[in-house]
Amino acid sequence: MGTLFSVLLIAILSFSYVVVKKMLIKLYSILKIDKYSESKVVYIWGTLVISIYLFYNNKISWYLPINLKSTLLLIVVIFVVNLFISRYSGYKPTGRTNIINFVIVFPIVEEVLFRGLLIPIISEKFNYETAFEIGGLPVTTSIILSALLFSLSHLQYYQFNKTTMKYMLFALAGGLVFGLIADNTNSILVTLLLHVEFNFLACIYAQKSSKLSTNS
Length: 216
Known about the structure:
Mean pLDDT: 88
Oligomer: single chain
Helix content: over 70%
Shape: globular
Order of helices and strands: HHHHHEEHHH
Number of strands: 2
């Protein structure tokens, strides 16, 4: 796989949600179908990403993690931190379908995409050097790049504003620690659970905040 092709593939994968969305809208327009829905985009996008992941020879799998002992402290710290910082995320999904997608579907697809696919692809073609360490674990250039792409990818879901900038900062921090855990355990299983935890708690806090606002 040439470097130019790799860069193009990384860019397309990073913004694959909006690519699928635009293609689906175009297809619906050609076929003159009116019943377009965002959920269809999510499920088609997710199916494509997971299919590519299963086809690709992955270094980072969805099987049980290895070297768990070396990352256990970091995993516990992130689990506890999620309990507190998720209330400040700003996410407020509404409706059963959007909540299910936010809590389950997006974490699965994003972990498969950004940790399972992009980290190995980036590390194959670019320097796999240690930039710095977190808790004695090496943060490589591929982890940093995948975290930046994960952060930027949130622009395809939302209009750019102060709230979106908050989402991107949370995504950047999450991308770094999730990438570090996935890379050192060769598995997305733990990061998937941590991602679900964060999104689930963000929903709980958003619902509580909404009820308090309604009652006041």
